[in-house]
Amino acid sequence: MKLAGLVLVVVGLAGLTIRIILYNYRDVAGTIEGSLLTPLAHLAIAAGAALLALHFVYRVLRHVLHH
């Protein structure tokens, strides 16, 4: 769960980085704005953050219940 969350966050940040880098080129700026790159990057970051949060809650609950 933790690894999947980290991978999703990294993939989402990579997508946003690609968008930011390519946004300065006028010939691809419209294509990037019309693509699903930004929404999918946001979705990947949100899903990854949710998995990391679930992992954290699971670890805390497991620690509390065992002590």
What does this entry look like structurally?
With 67 residues, the chain is mainly alpha-helical. The chain contains three helices and no strands. The protein is rod-shaped. The relative contact order is 0.22. The mean pLDDT is 87.
Task: Please tell me the overall pLDDT.
Answer: 87
Count of beta strands: 0
Which structural class do the helices and strands define?
Answer: mainly alpha
- Report the major sheet: none
Give the overall form.
rod-shaped
**Number of helical runs?**
3
Distance between the termini: 23 Å
Share in helix: over 70%
Quaternary form: single chain
The run of helices and strands is HHH
Instruction: Please mark out the parts with pLDDT under 50 across 5 or more consecutive residues, or reply none.
Output: none
Computed over alpha carbons, the radius of gyration is 17 Å
Tell me what portion of residues adopts beta-strand conformation.
under 5%
Question: What are the salient characteristics of this protein?
Answer:
single chain, 67 residues, mainly alpha, 90% helix, rod-shaped
Brief description of this entry?
By secondary structure, this protein is mostly helical. The protein is built from three helices and no strands.
